[in-house]
Write a structure and sequence with these properties.
The protein is an all-alpha fold. The chain is built from 20 helices and two strands. Strand 1 and strand 2 form a beta hairpin.
Length: about 475
């Protein structure tokens, strides 16, 4: 059974069960935070011990244990720790459900970890639904009008997206006779290019899978759920959705399309161009609509749509040169880490400020540089990294992914991306200007817990370290993608 290779996932599952049971017998809810973080740390320890070992397939080739999966598992575990840290004060809003909240965060993490390791269409779908159902519940946790409406929209649209994805998987299975990614690749390689591209079933299945996965990464035109869900969800869950769900979506897309549909080259050119077009439209729509937002959570929602477009530049580059370009793969991994750190810094600050002001309006952030200079500095750093200015991780990430795209003949797409980055500077720097140059609208300092300040410090330090000395993460990303598949 090779259960020892699933120790990170098993330890996380046991921790989720332990948190629920502990919640029944203790009044000290702080213990739930301690147990949750301890479980995440144990899972991370198991994942680290597996790093660098030979790739293995387990459970009848349903899951892979390789550096690619371990890279994302460690990233998800780190994000989950920060989400739980910033939730310490926030969970007072639903005091009766501390155990359920922590358990669902852990189960969402478990689902995303399994997504990145899945090498079979069935296991991919099951893992994706485990994460999705956990998020459906977490989005509605506040039980007020906005939260309930957001959860309902998320469930309905998510159900449609899952059906579309499953239909695409069914067509792919019907055409190839298998659900395992390596076997799908072998069947497709054995066909002539003419017969392959003339088959409407496989092409339709591919398009439907792009649509289904596009919902998970908030890619245009499958983004309609994002603004309302981000605004209505508890802010720590908005944070987790913004980074965790998006990163998991890109991780599974990269594995599926690179492992199963990289050859023959005309097929990869087709889906590569689809991602290029979706990326161009996504980054443009996301940035243009973000300019009009007065609510900072909605602004960051459209910002995340734009960043999905930037990451799809890397997917397009892989499609155009699937067998020769390993730089595009590692650039995607580096970009998602840089985006994660920047979005974490932004949303953690929003959690602290919104807790004080009771508002997410950008205008209410006026004078925050005087009231809470550390928080304002952290938010400014996160936004500058999202723009892609030095000396932040965002600058290195954009340079990395744009350079590879140019070398693969996507200069037109990079020009669009650079223009969009310039547009994004307007609405990001507008927030910075409001915080530092406008007069405060309220009085008093903005209180924040030690755990929130710790999470914020980790995020900001990561932004600066990756911007100044990115070599370590770049090397890890290259190691992860060099052992991609088996």
């Amino acid at each position: 059974m090779n259960l020892e290779l699933l120790l990170p996932e098993l330890s996380l599952l046991i921790t989720a069960i332990a948190v629920i049971m502990l919640d029944l017998f203790t009044e000290r809810k702080g213990l739930l935070t301690v147990v949750s973080i301890a479980g995440l740390a144990i899972a991370a320890g198991f994942a680290i011990t597996m790093w660098g070992t030979a790739p293995q397939a387990i459970f009848n080739n349903m899951l892979a244990v390789d550096n690619y999966a371990l890279f994302f598992k460690l990233l998800f575990l780190g994000i989950a720790v920060l989400v739980i840290l910033v939730s310490v004060d926030y969970v007072s809003k639903f005091a009766r459900f501390h155990g359920e909240y922590h358990a669902l965060v852990l189960l969402a993490t478990l689902g995303m970890m399994l997504m990145t390791a899945a090498t079979d269409l069935i296991s991919i779908f099951v893992a994706l639904e485990l994460a999705a159902i956990s998020f459906y519940v977490l989005v509605g946790f506040l039980k007020d009008k906005k939260s309930t409406e957001a959860s309902l929209k998320f469930v309905l649209l998510g159900g449609v997206a899952s059906a579309v994805l499953l239909f695409g998987m069914a067509l792919t299975f019907g055409f190839t006779g298998t659900t395992q990614l390596p076997e799908i690749a072998q069947v497709i390689k054995g066909m002539s290019t003419q017969s392959l591209l003339a088959n409407p079933g496989l092409i339709l299945g591919l398009v439907l899978m792009i649509a289904g996965f596009g919902f998970k990464i908030a890619a245009v035109p499958f983004h309609m759920w994002v603004p309302d869900v981000y605004e209505g969800a508890p802010t720590p869950i908005t944070l987790y959705l913004s980074v965790g769900s998006k990163v998991a979506g890109f991780a599974v897309i990269l594995r599926v399309f690179y492992s199963a549909f990289a050859l023959p080259e005309p097929l990869s050119l087709d889906w590569g161009m689809i991602f290029a077009i979706l990326g161009a439209i996504g980054m443009t729509l996301g940035n243009v609509v973000a300019i009009q937002q007065a609510n900072i959570k909605r602004m960051l929602a459209y910002s995340s749509i734009a960043h999905a477009g930037y990451i799809m530049i890397g997917l397009a580059a892989i499609g155009l040169s699937p067998t020769t370009d390993t730089l595009a793969q590692s650039s995607i991994l580096f970009y998602v880490v840089a985006f994660t750190l920047a979005d974490l810094a932004a949303f953690i600050t929003v959690i602290a400020v919104s807790g004080k002001l009771g508002s997410d309006q950008i205008s209410d952030y006026a004078g925050m540089g005087k009231q809470a200079p550390i928080l304002a500095l952290a938010l400014s750093l996160g936004l500058i990294s999202l723009i892609g200015l030095p000396p932040t991780a965002g600058f290195i990430a954009k340079f990395y992914i744009f350079s590879d795209a140019v070398s693969n003949g996507l200069l037109w797409l990079v020009i669009i991306a650079v223009l969009n980055s310039t547009i994004s500077a307007y609405y990001y720097l507008r927030v910075v200007k409001v915080m530092w140059l406008n007069e405060p609208v309220g009085e008093g300092k903005v209180p924040s817990s030690f755990t929130l300040r710790l999470a914020l410090a980790i995020s900001c330090l990561g932004i600066l370290l990756l911007g100044i000395a990115p070599d370590f993460i770049i090397k890890l990303a290259e190691m992860a993608t060099s052992m991609f598949g088996f």
